[in-house]
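> example.struct
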């Protein structure tokens, strides 16, 4: 029951944060800030939606990180004869996997940012 409530809480929190980011990027101050930062394409509805999706993916990654310690604690409580190095390697692999997930989310965001820049650059060239 506790996991169900926690899951619903993360789901609602993810939706709320995504909506706040979307509204913040498309607001007048958000557009001005993004214009000064050199990312005016994020102030559009499509750009803000993509940024919101990437943030929700990041939150999902964090959620998976928060679930890991309970499994690790349960796995390390069972004593294994002479297998401390195996647990250490498993823990290191899980940390590398979590780091890789976060880096992949950042890389996907950067790739999507470049795609949007290219797309809006072509639209701006047609209009001019």
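> example.seq
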């Amino acid at each position: 029951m506790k996991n169900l409530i926690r899951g619903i809480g993360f789901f609602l929190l993810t939706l709320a944060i995504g909506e706040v980011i979307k509204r913040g990027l498309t607001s007048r101050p958000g557009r001005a800030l993004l214009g000064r930062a050199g990312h005016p394409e994020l102030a559009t509805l499509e750009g803000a939606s993509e940024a919101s999706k990437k943030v929700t993916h990041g939150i999902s990654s964090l959620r998976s990180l928060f679930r890991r310690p309970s499994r690790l604690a349960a796995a390390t409580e069972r004593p294994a004869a002479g297998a401390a190095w195996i647990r250490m390697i498993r823990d290191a692999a899980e940390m590398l996997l979590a780091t890789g997930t976060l880096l992949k989310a950042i890389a996907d965001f950067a790739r999507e940012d470049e795609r949007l820049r290219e797309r809006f650059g072509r639209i701006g060239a047609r209009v001019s």
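> remarks
The two ends are 58 Å apart (CA to CA).
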